[in-house]
Amino acid sequence: MRKIFFLFAASLTGLTACNNSGSENKAATDTAAAQANHDSMHHAATTTSSIAPLPEVPAGAKVFFKNLKDGQTVSSPLKVEMGVEGMSVDTANGIIKPASGHHHILVNAGDSIPSGETIVKDSVHVHFGNAQTSAELKLQPGKNTLVLQFADALHRSYGSRLTSKVTVNVKK
Q1: In this structure, what DSSP letter does residue 93 have?
Q2: Nearest to 57 by CA among 159, 137, 143, 132
Q3: Using one digit for the tens of pLDDT, what is the confidence trace for 111-126?
């Protein structure tokens, strides 16, 4: 009787474990598939030849850091306020609008992204695709170069015409 009970309990445990891991695997597979689909849509959106050209930059348009000056000494985390004139700030929703875009900050990552090039998203290319105009950045102590880079709804850079660069000294 004990052997039957033990076999029944072991079988039930095995079935439950297989069923749960199947759910977890399915959830992981679904999540991975959704991410792959999103990534492929983003990639397709930025490489398809039927995409609208990069919108023109209006004369006099510029981006700037509202609260930072070149050479300023700051603490980390650092609140950054981003401004733009001559353009409107909009989400990175894939819908191209004239004189519109969103901010990115390049942290110790060069002077600008060439015009029309898609800005990658990683630890040194910070995206603000929800139309944010302020953010908090965690910076390493010492000199840090921040480049404000404006891009269209597909994360395509407007190039050096819509960049602003500051070097800040982060206190230890």
Answers
A1: S
A2: 159
A3: 999 999 999 999 999 9
Question: In which element (H, E) is residue 74 found?
Answer: strand 73-74
Q: Are the C-beta atoms of 109 and 147 separated by less than 8 Å?
A: yes
Model pTM? Answer: 0.71
In tens, the pLDDT along 25-70 reads 333 333 333 333 334 344 444 444 578 899 999 999 999 999 999 9
Q: In this structure, which amino acid lies at residue 8?
A: F
DSSP H helices in 111-167: none
**Closest among 110, 122, 119, 120 to 147, alpha carbons compared:** 110
Rg of the chain on CA atoms, in Å: 24
Separation CA 49–CA 52 (nearest Å): 8
- Strand 142-151 and strand 78-85: pairing? unpaired
